[in-house]
Amino acid sequence: MYQTILVPVDGSKRAEAILSHVEHIARRDSAKVLFLKVEEEPIMLDRDEVIDADKYHREFEEHKQRSQSYLTGLKSEFGRHGIESDTRLAYGSVVKAILTVAAETGTNLIAMATHGLSGLARVSYGSVAAGVLQAAELPILLIRSCKDPQEGTCE
Fold first, then answer.
1. How far is the CA of 80 from the CAs of 20, 26, 73, 96, 113, in angstroms?
2. Predicted pLDDT of residue 56
3. Is the pLDDT of residue 33 over 50?
4. Three-state SS string across the chain, please?
5. pLDDT tops 80 at residue 48
6. Are 4 and 106 within 8 A, CB to CB?
7. Tens digits of per-residue pLDDT, 106-117?
8. How buried is residue 37: exposed, middle or buried, by Cβ count under 10 Å (0-12/13-18/19+)?
9. What integer is the mean pLDDT of 57-75?
């Protein structure tokens, strides 16, 4: 049924709560999994602001390498389970990047965990899941992740 499953992750255990569900679907459908991590845009400076450019570039490259290593780890884990996967690192608006990558790759399913924020926290930070749900024109699998998956309770 599904050929390509896009899995947006942010490096947190809460975001990874979707992985067992994705593994099950990917095995069942022989689907390819695409892990996506979206980073903030590089720093924008005010008119008179000065930074140490060499230090900034060094830190940016180190952060980029850590993100790519994280994605490579997920790919390796799924590969050990016989599931074909790939990775993508993007920059900018998270919702826009998810939708753009989904369109570019022929994604059939977006699978992601929500962080379960509500009230003021959701208003302050926005909701990636809500944004994707509102704008996507393809199936979406959402699960609400728990603060402590071992306890099985969500806030």
1. 14, 13, 11, 31, 23
2. 76
3. yes
4. CCCEEEEEECCCCCHHHHHHHHHHHHHHHCCEEEEEEEECCCCCCCCCCCCCHHHHHHHHHHHHHHHHHHHHHHHHHHHHCCCCEEEEEEECCHHHHHHHHHHHHCCCEEEEEECCCCHHHHHHHCCHHHHHHHHCCCCEEEEECCCECCCCECC
5. no
6. yes
7. 999 999 998 755
8. buried
9. 93
Token pair recorded at residue 14: 């809460």
Lookup: tokens for 153: 């309770």
Tell me which amino acid residue 147 is. K
As a dihedral over the C-alpha atoms of residue 98, residue 2, residue 29, residue 6, rounded to 10 degrees, the angle is 0
Distance CA 117, CA 53 (A): 36
pLDDT at 16 over 50: yes
